[in-house]
Amino acid sequence: MAALLPAEWIKNWEKGGKSEFVQLCRALSENKNHDVGFRDIQQALYELAYHVVRGNLKHDQASNVLGDVIEFREDMPSILADVFCILDIETSCLEEKNKRDHFTQLVLACLYLVSDTVLKERLDPETLESLGLIKQSQQFNQKSVKIKTKLFYKQQKFNLLREENEGYAKLIAELGQDLSGNITSDLILENIKSLIGCFNLDPNRVLDIILEVYECRPEYDDFFVPLIESYMYMCEPQTLCHILGFKFKFYQDPSGETPSSLYRVAAVLLQHNLIDLEDLYVHLLPGDNAIIEEHKREIVEAKQIVRKLTMVVLSSEKTEEKEKEKEKEEEKTEKPPDNQKLGLLEALLKIGDWHHAQSIMDQMPPFYSTSHKPIAIALCQLVHVTIEPLYRRVGVPKGAKGSPISSLPNKRAPKQAESFEELRKEVFNMLCYLGPHLSHDPILFAKVVRLGKAFMKEFQSDGSKQEDKEKMETLFSCLLSITDQVLLPSLSLMDCNACMSEELWGMFKTFPYQYRYRLYGQWKNETYNSHPLLVKVKAQTIDRAKYIMKRLTKENVKPSGRQIGKLSHSNPTILFDYILSQIQKYDNLITPVVDSLKYLTSLNYDVLAYCIIEALANPEKERMKHDDTTISSWLQSLASFCGAVFRKYPIELAGLLQYVANQLKAGKSFDLLILKEVVQKMAGIEITEEMTMEQLEAMTGGEQLKAEGGYFGQIRNTKKSSQRLKDALLDHDLALPLCLLMAQQRNGVVFQEGGEKHLKLVGKLYDQCHDTLVQFGGFLASNLSTEDYIKRVPSIDVLCNEFHTPHDAAFFLSRPMYAHHISSKYDELKKAEKGNKQQHKVHKYITSCELVMAPVHEAVISLHLPKVWDDISPQFYATFWSLTMYDLAVPHSSYDREVNKLKVQMKAIDDNQEMPPNKKKKEKERCTALQDKLLEEEKKQLEHVQRVLQRLKLEKDNWLLAKSTKNETITKFLQLCIFPRCIFSAIDAVYCAHFVELVHQQKTPNFSTLLCYDRVFSDIIYTVASCTENEASRYGRFLCCMLETVTRWHSDRVIYEKECGNYPGFLTILRATGFDGGNKADQLDYENFRHVVHKWHYKLTKASVHCLETGEYTHIRNILIVLTKILPWYPKVLNLGQALERRVHKICQEEKEKRPDLYALAMGYSGQLKSRKPFMIPENEFHHKDPPARNAVPATVQNGPGGAGMPTSLTINTVRLEEGATEETDKLKEKSQGVVKVINKTVNATPKVTTSNGNSASNSKIIKEKDDKEKSGKEKDKEKKDKTPAATPEMKALGKDGKDKPKEERANKEEKAREIKEKTPKSDKEKEKVKKEEKASKEEKSKTVVTIIESKSTAEKEREKEPSRERDLAKEMKSKENAKGGEKVPVAGSLKSPVPRSETSESEREQKRRKVDTHSSPSHSSTVKGTAVLPKVPLVSENYSSSRVISVHFLQDNLNELKESSAKHYINHTTPTLSKSKEREVEKKDLDKSRERSREREKKDEKDRKDRKRDHSNSDREVPQDSTKRRKEENGTTGSSKHSKSESPSDSPRLNEKEKEKNKSKSSGKEKGDSIKAEKMEKSSSGSKKESRHDKEKTEKKEKRDSTGGKEEKKHHKSSDKHR
């Protein structure tokens, strides 16, 4: 603190320092702030005195100035005395004596200012002695001690005898008299005063007696309270409190028990504020610390109990444990000392003094006080009284009387609540102090819940003002808090009280589920840890739950269910948590648990729903098994339990459905499993791939037929549960969001979710997502009313473009809407004008279809690029996607089957003697009603199908526009319609197959049935490889239905003629002008069709074997699934079946240890395949193979350009091939181009050798044959037509492996047809190229071309590149010819057919035998992507497609062994060669002829081209001849390669190194000579001699080399040996 007295003042004291000091003191004493002034004056005086002590100022100067200052304040002498007191202490400690002297002199000088008594109080006795104020300090000390003792410690002893006993007797008589009259407390008080005075009574003792009497007469509050209040004016305020304290102390010894009357008196006095709680509280035991310690000890004990319950105790330890527990309990039973604080608290609550009671509770740990039952009950009673008026007004249920509770007589008790606002202010606080101990008063619990219900009713009714709304919101949140802190914990402590649970549900059901689940979460995870009692209860519940669950079986469901019910009323969260944990471990518990839950209350069901969701969302649980390929079993078990429990019991679904939606939003699709199970169980809609064909058929009928025959289980009683599911979806607007989320998530599974996951798991999740979508969509379609459905599902363009729903899913969702629309429009029109004729009805139906579908036709245009609509019309697209199987066919057999079942059932009922008659009657009535329903449904469907077919008949002409080519149209149809839909669901798979057949039957213009089927069967590898497991199953069903149709046509000529004979779909010449009826010659005849079917079977085998050999999990699994599905119709041909069987057997061996699921699939298929073996037939029975007319026609003829013999197979799927191209394809391209070059060389080199059959001929013969084909394709075609048109198909067939023969025959006609229809004008550029091509063909000794019909789209690119390429190739070939000789020549042959077959020289018998034996083993195929190669290699590819029979994959099949096999081709035929000169002559003649022909052809083509240019400048519709010609040229090598095939299959495998060497040594000239000789030999031998032993040895070596096709080749050996 800064000095108030500056040093200058002291130096100049007399001049100005004194006056300054006085002014300072005056100023300080006038300061209004009393405290500040006081301290500053003290300091000023102290500093002045201190200057005197130090000798800076004389003591008389100081005393003078102090005399002036002393008057400024009354208390100035006291302040001065204080200053002296401090200086006294300070100076007495100093060693300088002079300072002490200065101090003494100052005090002496100031004695006149401060009184002696003040100084004696404050100064030390020694100082007083030195000042002369006392004589001796020692005596002074002794005297003061005596006085103090007398004052504070000496008691005044009253002798009771000296006090008059009579006085006390009179006092008691006064207080104990009858107080009912006019006696007042004032009157009695006067008497008491008189008695005290008269009898000299001790006032404190009198007060004590008054309290004693009051204790005995508690009913006279109104008398005693005023009396004590008045009496207290005579005493000190503390007296009353001390007397009460002494009374409480008296009872504090361990054996004492404080009487309740004392508590009550203290409580009343507290309530009337006659004593302070703080003053009385200190007198009460136990201390607060002891209470806190006790509370902690209780918590520890509770935790120990929990630990014991969760520990596994062995039986020997159990007995010891029990003994210890008994001892402990005995110790506990010793009565604890009285808790006076709680006693007082109880008394306060009973008289309604909430204010003081709350203060006491706040001193203790939470809920400690109310854990004592009397206090809890007292507080409950107080709440009863407080809520009474409000409860009577709004809470009493209708019809209940109730027992009214009278209010407390006490005016100071809390005010009774009249409104909810008052309830919040008063009662909610009391309830919070009660906490879980409301359980002691179930009646009050019920009252509070009913008030909650009444409030919720008010809260949910609208129309209140903004202020009121805010109040209501506050009230609502308070109500939730009370529920969380009081109601639910109290329920946990109640003894299984089902009524309370139901009562509570009455309030809970008014809360939204989000609030309810929040409350359950708190209850389950937090509440049980908040209080020792609840901790114990939780442990006991778990213990009991374990006991019940251990004993739960199917047999004792009822008793166990009752026990579960009992336990669940109070502690559902804990119980269900345990039950669910058990279900997750042991799925066999699901059924008994579901059955045992029937004794639950509504609240418990709701809690169960919450617990299920919590278990599902558990972040600690892995959703995949440790192998990462399958969904965890705990999740599957929970999902299954979900479905069962939600179906059986009325549990609210909203939370669960919202959880699934949220998981989908987060991009997680695991939990769709739950939705799938719930829909399956609640709505009875099953999604399974294991459906039998009968079930599938039933699923195409009406609802009744579906229910009876479409599902595995009889789906009964799903009406209520499906209604509940529907309501939940509609109320919470989840129907459409779930659909859209699932549709979007399908791709999300693959592209987002599937990142790190195993491919198998990704497939499973994709399937699960898709299946659930189909199932859920089906549920919505069958359960939502038309209005609901239409209101929720947007139009198709919005679905696809805005919501990004995949098209298949979007149409799936919209389809029921279209059906609803059409039927409602149709009904409207029928009502409008009543014409009953069938025609009128059909007309109305078609009108309604047009009205409904017109906007859809508009909408779909935006779904695809404009180019798409050049080929198929939006109307066709919409029609395809909007119809279902229900619209296309009536499953009569299914209806009959179900009706017969019912008849059998009725007969069984009749025969049953034990059944009571009334039950019999009921059952029969049910069966009859069902039967009538089914028949009615069948009739209704029949009419509907007829109407639909009429509508399609009218529409069909506008369906396929085919502005580009037929092939392109089929591509679009397959790509946008068939493929996406056939893998959507099993019924859709069947629908697609039926639809294709329907389009064929309707004779739809521009639709080539042949082409469509061919594209479906030809390249299934990619489709199969890209499917998931379930999609593969559906794709298999689709193929199965397609094969069924084909097999039906194949089985009987009559059927074929009837269903296909004159149909545009089977035209083989595709005219540019569209379908004009076609002449009979353009139709594919029956025999050729059988060849085609054989080709398809072969293709399927090829693809299957290929997939099985990849080693890829997905390929193998999917192809096995597909093969299993198509087993009824494939394989039909014995040798194809055997090839498959061998490969499948190999899979069984390879996968047994590695991939057990593949092994199981393969074993299953293998077994079924074996059982089908008796139904397989040899190839010659499957399609007729005529023996070729020997030597009549040159072998080459078979590939004539565009002639009648054109193979249909030409047309097949080049589109796909292009798409699949990969690196491998490039390698192949190189190889195959090499091959082509060689072929061209040979073409140019060899003269005509037309009749060679290629059996025992030389190498050169083969070369010449190839030449022939290429050079003089047209000539030969003519020859072919002229000489033996009939023989050509067979030759073709022979040219392929025995198998392929039919394919080519079939191909002839088909291709011819296609050639004409698909001639599409090409661009100028292309035309120029064509010209170049023609020139090239002249230069290169006019390569002849065999036409193949290829769709524009696939071949265009190649065409642009081809002319130049051909030229190069031809040149290269020429140059290489001499150097390499025959080494490479036959490669083309090997490309085409792994096992070529002789064309004409073999005897019929041999050929027949070979049909079975020499089938090239499809198992040769080794590479995956061969298909892609073709379009890129013009010569070979055309070549390929012309003889499309040998599947694309053969290109690659033996590429590795190309050289070997090529060498084989000719070495078998070695014979002496002709002279070179002869060869040359032959060659020249050949060339001349071919040149002339090509010139003529050019001229014709150019004319054609000019004509067509005028008509079709935009290359849209028709193909001019130049394109056909170009195709022919492109196919230059077809002939040759085919020819190479034509060699005997028995020869091809027998290549040998020695032979190769021979080849190399021979000059090309020799080869030519050889070939001519070979021809002669062939003529003479007519193919009877086959091979030398030498050959045989070579082939055996080759067999060892060739691993894949070994077995097949052995067969070839055998056959050739026999022949020999």
Describe this structure in words.
This protein is mainly alpha-helical and 1620 residues long. The protein has 78 helices and no strands. Helix 23 (442-460) packs antiparallel against helix 24 and helix 42 runs antiparallel to helix 43 (838-860). Residues 1072-1078, 1187-1327, 1335-1367, 1369-1476 and 1512-1620 have low confidence and may be disordered.
Count of helical regions: 78
Strand content: under 5%
- Assign a percent range to the helix content: 55-70%
Number of beta-strand segments? 0
What low-confidence regions span 5 or more consecutive residues with pLDDT below 50?
A: 1072-1078, 1187-1327, 1335-1367, 1369-1476, 1512-1620
Mean pLDDT: 74
What gap, in angstroms, lies between the N and C termini? 138 Å
Largest β sheet strand count, sense and barrel closure:
none
Would you tell me the structural class of the helices and strands? mainly alpha
The oligomeric state of the chains shown is: single chain
Rg: 55 Å
Shape: elongated
Describe the SSE topology.
Blueprint lengths: L6 H5 L1 H18 L3 H21 L4 H11 L6 H18 L3 H13 L6 H7 L2 H7 L5 H16 L12 H12 L8 H15 L3 H14 L4 H11 L5 H14 L9 H12 L5 H5 L6 H23 L4 H19 L6 H12 L2 H10 L9 H23 L24 H15 L7 H19 L5 H28 L4 H11 L4 H13 L6 H20 L5 H14 L1 H14 L4 H7 L5 H15 L16 H16 L5 H12 L6 H12 L9 H6 L4 H8 L8 H13 L3 H19 L5 H25 L2 H7 L3 H7 L4 H26 L5 H23 L13 H9 L2 H4 L3 H20 L5 H39 L10 H17 L3 H16 L7 H10 L1 H6 L3 H23 L1 H9 L24 H24 L3 H13 L8 H21 L1 H17 L6 H4 L31 H6 L3 H23 L13 H13 L1 H11 L3 H9 L5 H17 L6 H16 L12 H29 L6 H6 L11 H10 L20 H9 L6 H5 L4 H10 L8 H36 L9 H10 L3 H8 L11 H9 L2 H18 L7 H13 L4 H14 L1
Helix pairs in contact: 2-3, 3-5, 3-6, 4-6, 5-6, 8-9, 10-11, 10-12, 11-13, 12-13, 12-15, 15-19, 17-27, 19-20, 19-21, 21-22, 21-23, 22-24, 23-24, 23-25, 24-26, 27-28, 27-29, 28-29, 28-30, 29-31, 29-32, 32-34, 33-38, 34-39, 38-39, 39-42, 42-43, 43-44, 43-47, 46-47, 48-49, 48-50, 49-52, 52-53, ...
